[in-house]
Write a structure and sequence with these properties.
Shape: globular
Radius of gyration: 11 Å
Structural class: alpha+beta
Strand content: 15-25%
Helix content: 40-55%
Number of helices: 2
Number of strands: 3
Strand order of the largest sheet: 2-1-3
Largest sheet: 3 strands, antiparallel
Bound molecules: zinc ion
Distance between the termini: 14 Å
Amino acid sequence: MKQLTCKDIGVDCDVKFVGETVEDIMAQAAAHAASEHNLPAIPSNIDQKCRAAIKDIPEPSE
Ligand SMILES: [Zn+2]
């Protein structure tokens, strides 16, 4: 699993994105940025920052 939070890229926001792939997370982040941060398109520098900040997290154990 991979995880990104808005805080990871310097935004004062506690929203967390969790997904299996970077693309999955970027899709969630783009939708969130549009609705919550008034950012309809993620600029390429922010996109790169997001990708660099995505962390691998342990799979949830069921
Ligand atoms: Zn946010």
